[in-house]
Amino acid sequence: MTAQSDVSPAPEDASLGIAKLIVPSLIGGLVALTLGIYGRLHHPTGIAVSISGFTSAGYAKSWLATGATVFAIVQVISALVMYGKIPRVSAPSWIGRAHRWSGRIAFLLAVPVAINCLYGLGFQTYSTRVLIHSILGCAFFGAFTVKMLILPKRGVPGWVLPVVGAVVFLALIGIWFTSAYWFFSTFGIHR
């Protein structure tokens, strides 16, 4: 006799789990599309966020994006520990809280950067780097929306959350390389 955990879900159960992804995916797609359309149609103001302590919006955005990226890396590592994907590391009791808070902080650091990019600069296409950055920025917030909408859902296939989380993480890494890394490489690292 087979243990309950060894039994594969019935095809109809799997299709029901996949069906639960349709609405979150549509909403995430609409978020990404809306941001892109707004960014393209909106007349850029040049600056939207001014943070004291930085010599320019470029430095403020680059350091905030770097902070968001660091906390996103903490998110990935904590997820790997929580799900037992790092050998010989047992998950401490606080790892779930660290995972949730690192995600919250990463998102909070990314929002002013996104506002500045979207409102101050818009969706730009004047170079390949900037086009990729604009696309990834919209994709990040769309994928993040999908991730947040599927988190509370039960019956979603086990591979979905790690895949969507990886898309969110990779989009953020791409955003960082096409913005903060480029900025620091071009203008140096200082405030």
Q: Secondary-structure blueprint of this entry?
A:
Blueprint lengths: L10 H9 L2 H20 L15 H26 L12 H27 L6 H23 L9 H28 L4
Number of helices: 6
**Averaged pLDDT:** 88
> What general outline do the C-alpha atoms trace?
globular
**Gyration radius, in Å:** 19 Å
| Cα-to-Cα separation, first versus last residue | 65 Å
Instruction: Characterize the largest beta sheet: strand count, sense, and whether it forms a barrel.
Output: none
User: H/E order of the elements?
Assistant: HHHHHH
**Poorly predicted tracts of residues:** 1-7
Report on the structure:
The chain is an all-alpha fold. It has one domain. Helices cover 70% and strands 0% of the residues. The chain has 6 helices and no strands. Helix 3 runs antiparallel to helix 4, helix 3 (57-82) packs antiparallel against helix 6 and helix 5 (128-150) runs antiparallel to helix 6. The radius of gyration is 19 Å and the shape is globular.
